Fold these 4 entries.
Entry 1:
Amino acid sequence: MLRVMARPAFKNKRRNPYNFLLYSALQRCGVDVREYASSALLSSPWDILHVHWPESLLETGSYLSARWSEGKYLFILDFVRRRGTRVVWTVHDLKPHDLVYPELETRFWAAVLERLDGIIALTQSGLTRAVEGFPRLQSLPAFVIPHGHYRGQYRNDLSRDEARQRLGLAEHSRVITYFGQIRPYKNVPRLIECVRRGDDDVVLLVCGRLSKRANLETELRSAAGEDPRIRLLLEFIADDDVQQYLIAADLLVFPYKDILNSGSALLGLSFDRPILVPNRGAMQELQNIVGSDWVRTYDGDLDEAAIRDALAWAAAPRGSRPQLHAFDWDVIGQQTLAAFQQICGGPAGSGAVDAA
């Protein structure tokens, strides 16, 4: 039985169920998956150490504490790799988003990348950018395994009318929702400005937690002004409430300046909602897989015309739900298991490129 220790594995389910869904699928494939614990990792052999957001280890408070965490983790990586454990990184981002100690975190990121035995990217464009940005990765086994969908993860038992009644939205209003964590690169103030300059019957729901280290709330509230069409829900949305903000929407918009992948886009599609996204690598791939009936892209900066055209497009009838078979978790579990098995097939740190 393949033994995998992951950081995180299951403990972040409430904040982001991605890891829980991935490792639950791996368990169904017969893999022994455990939550990261340094004592357990050091005391017994493991085939794979799977890491996702390595910089989160440094979010420990003081600079001295972060330095201690850096040294401890790099020692652990060196120790377990000498013992035969392969270290695999899933590429969610190409750089830390919320830097507390920029110099330390940049150095730590580079040091972790030097200790990898394989990488998994969520999109082909993400893999290409990762290898271009970090040439050392060219020598590693590399795999493209998509982010899975969220069907069945959240309640989905409201009608559009019921969702709107709960939120106090008029039946005739055209509703746009932005859903997901709010960071500077996600460009939410631009979306607010475009809606305010657009048609009077459009309502915008901005739903999501603010980045812990970017002072965005003032900018968002300034962009919204006193416009009653703009509703800011700058907080974590409870699982049972997720459905109402998505089902009430005619269109979901994700106006990112930069995009490697988007779980929020897949969340919207999981609720059968058309989405508007920038015409950039990962989103082009998503459109190619799901189809232009459900994924619409725009070029350049988001503007009122792009939103107006997308709302008209979203209003057109659709004969079936978006096809998300490529994002099924059991398929993803099998793909991830195959990647781990291939990475374990050679000496640690000496794999050949195998880009899927």
Note: The two ends are 24 Å apart (CA to CA).
Entry 2:
Amino acid sequence: MVKMSTPEASLGFKAPPFSIEFGGSVYSLSSVAGPNGTLVMFICNHCPYVKQIVRQLSKDVKLMQESGIGAVAIMPNDVSSYPEDSPEKMADFAREYSFSFPYIYDAEQKVAASYGAICTPDFFGFDKKLELQYRGHFMDLTSGTHDLLDAMLEIAKGRKVSRKQKPSIGCSIKWK
């Protein structure tokens, strides 16, 4: 496992469109976008950093969705190197943690590359114009502040994110 942290965000970065066929459905940026903002998450099953937060993440995303934030989780890893991230195990993972959002597989790794994702977890919070307003960590585990949730709720209200954004730390994406 290689520990990575996200770079400083270029706020205002426009969300790249995508279309991924997965599990018999087609998911696109427009199909997952919410009326008040959109959260694009890059996660996986095997990373201990994801495992540490996933239960709370599932709860927090439900609160975001109640405020009009759309959400999608994208698994970007090469499953031939990490079979525990396979589509079958992704479905089990989503069920186990009661995901209320699509968890889809970026088999060609094009979406992760277009967003500049570098680790799991990596969070991209966009406003209703699909302009980046937050790229940072999920929460401060020492203080218990829910930075991602707080930021996305501010975005849902049309406000700028007031808290300083701290980088997300996670496992490197397993590129082909």
Note: The domain at 3-172 is CATH 3.40.30.10 (Glutaredoxin).
Entry 3:
Amino acid sequence: MFSYHSFNLQIHKPVGPENATVYWCTVSWETPLYGQLYGVYMFLSILVVPMCLMVFAYSGICRKMWVLHRKRPNIAQHR
């Protein structure tokens, strides 16, 4: 859905010296609010949500290892 809309919003701005034909492809939002909402969406979907999932998963792994460490007798002391 976003790729279709962003494809329609792309514009080519000419940049560089007058004698060179160089274009910069950029997005032109209808209102600045759409650009800010897209930025927040990308921030959440690329950084925050995966980070929360990793924190949840690794904390569960660490908790299980801690419990297992507490339940098992220390093998090095029995030698």
Note: The two ends are 64 Å apart (CA to CA).
Entry 4:
Amino acid sequence: MDDVAAASSERQSTSRSWALLGFFGVFCVVAFAVALWPRESHVTGPVATTTPVPPAPATIDGWTPYWVLDRILEQPDSGASRLSNLREVSPFWFSVTGFDAIDSDTFTPDDLAEEYIGQLRNAGVAIVPSLLDRMDAGQMATILSNPVVRSAHVVAIREFAEQLDADGIDIDYEQFAFADDPSTWIATRPNWIDFIAELSVGLHDDGRTLSVSIPAVYDERVTGDRGYWVYDHGAIAEYVDSLRIMAYDYSVVEPGPIAPLDWFEQVIDGVLLAVPQQFHERIVLGIGSYGYNWPTTVIGECPEDAPGRTGVNPGTLDDLISRRGIEPVADVVTGEWTATYELTVDNGVTQCVQTRQLHWIDADGVALRVEMARRAGIEGVALWALGYEDDEVWNALISSSTRNLIP
């Protein structure tokens, strides 16, 4: 079962020396100025010209889940030299379990979490913990629908931020999108806006920032069946300091790409349409550096503990590729890598052979998406997730965020 463990664990980490030929080149475009002499000219002075402005460098944020803390802290470059490139980091192990209850995940290694937060402080990185809605479907919507309970929830968040001495708070309430019935969105939307507005005032009065992490929207509409308009990206933009758009997880249940390029471009276009121009500088585009590993066909009878969909990332892929003899294939349409292989699962009683399919984003894919965001005028990116990346991904992230791009 060692193959199963390696394929299924997002919490394992290995040093990667795997090198694959990248399929995204960075092409330099040289602009030539051509002087055109008119047949007749009534212009007596110089003709005004406009020089295109290169895209601005991107700030870098990131989420850090608890299950990668051991890997991060084992890295020799996990200190100030790497962290100094980050603007803010969101520890990803705090959950909202009631209107006045915020808890650390049971599996969080408290000693490592404390050490990591200490490193962030020493490096001068803003600490903006993510708060995840871990309640059952509809419960957060119910909390926000009652002004008194909603205000009590705001107070609980402010007190949590004070106790942690956090620089800000990141609200990551995904149950609206992925658990609640979309028929409830029309009622939830105004309550959500009121909540964000009230929390914004409170946190700003406390000298703290407010970020939200929300899924994509594809236009400015707040009705219909396209995008997660329940979050009303445009309406909340004036209240938040960062509007983080999760531009990944395109495929989750069924095998497929993580953030195909055509969809990624739709996400960019959609948020720019939805958010008023004066708040575009607050948009932060979430960039995925991971993948999934799905079973597609099964021959035989699998044991109950046979792996289903599992996560992969640059820190774990090389071991899987090496042991299984996998030959990755570049998909230039999606801007990702794919691979298939067979896995035998045997517990001594039952046995099956799974055909498994992988999709993931590598260093070149990260760089390409960062540059797409910058060229669209988005000046901030956030990596999902810090701790997944290897040196190649990290270097690609830094380079693509800062290098000069020809407009």
Note: The radius of gyration is 23 Å.
